[in-house]
Design goal:
The structure holds two protein chains of two kinds. Chain A is mostly helical. Chain A contains 14 helices and no strands. Helix content of chain A is 73%, strand content 0%. In chain A, α6 packs across α12 and α8 crosses α9. Chain A starts with a helix and ends in a 6-residue tail after the last helix. Classes of the chains: A mainly alpha, B alpha/beta.
Chain lengths: 307, 341
Amino acid sequence: MTTTWLERRRSRIDDLAGGRSLGAEAFRRLCREPAAIIGAIIIAVFVVVAAFAPWIAPHSATEAFPQLQENLRPGSIPGPQEGFPLGSDQLGRDFLSRMILASQQTLLVGVFATLIGLAVGVVIGTIAGAFGGWVDTLLMRITDVLLAIPSLLLAISVAALAASPSQTTVIIAVAIVSVPIFARLLRGSMLAQRNSDYVVAATALGVKRPAVVLRHMLPNAIGPVIVQATLTLATAILDAAALSFLGLGDADPGRAEWGLMLAQAQTYLDVRPALAFYPALAIIAVALGFTLLGESLREAIDPKGRR
Amino acid sequence: MTAVRRAEDPRSRATAEPLLSVRDLRVTFHRKGEPDTVAVDGVSFDVAPGQVVGLVGESGCGKSVTSMAIMRLLPDRGVRVSGSVLMDGTDLLTLPEAQMRERRGRDLSMVFQDPLTSLNPVIPVGLQITEVLRRHQGMGKEAARKAAVELLDRVGIPDPRRRLEAYPHQMSGGMRQRALIAIALACSPRLLIADEPTTALDVTIQAQILELLRELVRETGAALVMITHDLGVVAGLCETVNVLYAGRIVERAQRHRLFTTPRHPYTHGLLRSIPRLDSPQGEELPAIRGSVADNVPWDHACAFAPRCPRSLDRCLEITPEAETTGGRLLRCHNPVPASAE
């Protein structure tokens, strides 16, 4: 009698939990974290601006305006004025429009580089973690070599290999840098899954090996990798900006891109520091947004936390 | 139906071909720089269709390794398994891995010790049941769902339709073990190995789970190998009991005979160390002295000798052989006299 009462009681408690999955629980924790909300707001603003850039920007990014150009002379670049809230850039183009349109480039490079890195890293990590043995050893030694090279140096080397620098080479260079991080992380958590009771249990039920790996191990192991992806977005954006800054990005000098704008602004640092200030601020803010969200996500998914 | 009837009739069972026949099973673990560890040392036993066989022993005596070896779930590296495990005349140990995988979950399956960790936390329970059904029975999504509801209902989970969507962490320990049993029995295997299915549960739930296992085994006609350190579990469930010590079977008998007249000093000690309601108050509980760490290797001795109250000189010189008399297997130089208890 007592036991049926107990079980009824337990199922009532379960009802209160309301059929929430682990993901939903994590999301709830995330919403209570101020850092996560700030990060999410920054990212939301950034994504909206990037998505609707052509409509938000008052002017084109490449058009030079006579009314700005006529005030342009060595030692003086026109500041904010009627119709041009952030003033002119060094060639008489609308600085605000260039800032807004540049967000598209940044988002594009950041997201694609991270996705490519994630995809390749997940494949490598899954193979290494699921099979072990010499496959694991081989793959992990290669990632070790890649990890041993400082990330920016690696990105620069890869980008420099390209015959003609373009946005694609930047994306690939930044993606390659993130591959070993994802691969190593996933391999580690896959290994931890391999001897877990439910993996043995699934094997004992005759579930096929690919299904065990993809259906049972991967979903349990992928959490930290998703978190890492958010953090990698931040570094990808920074790396991409750095490559542009160093002139390893797209060859077109008229292109609106924060890293490139920052590089070009160096010459005019004493004339009009705002030209360097705003791109730098934008890069920092976006990187910070992704870092804040990523860190909070890490804590939400693993509340026991390492820190 | 025939399976059920056969399960209930002990005479036909005695003559029936064994479903599972373990012969001279030996599992050795190698580790670099260390001497090999023999976890299971020539274990042989038979399981008839529909029979419930117990495998009893303390921690480290090789019970779980035996079950893992039968299921072929031990890692490839660092482990050597020899002997044979015959099921339907096929040696499971030499079967190609792909064929073994076909059999796991369909012909023989296993219930694990810890229901808290044996279910995948990120997959709803329903999917974990349908997965097996679709894999082995080739059922469609809907058919498997329906069968899963029936299975959950059969193992006594209330509101099974809704439970399909539940994640393991939303269920209590007892319910999770019920779900695991449902998964193990999904494809009506003829052999179920239960590796201490009740250790992680509290006592009342334990009783329920054992009752459930007993019912299901009777209903489906499956044979059950019950692995446990709990003699209470054995007393309630098993027909034949194998007592394992340091990787060897030291005594095997029908449950009733084993409990009334244990012959091996180890079995005798185990039974005496169970607290009884009618024992006088204040009296110290008899215990087996020493621990597993005091074992000597079986090579030229009886592993239990250092802890044995009845050990003779030759117990430390000659390995006792297993001798079968009147349906009882005994491995002892100086057994407890049959009239002792």
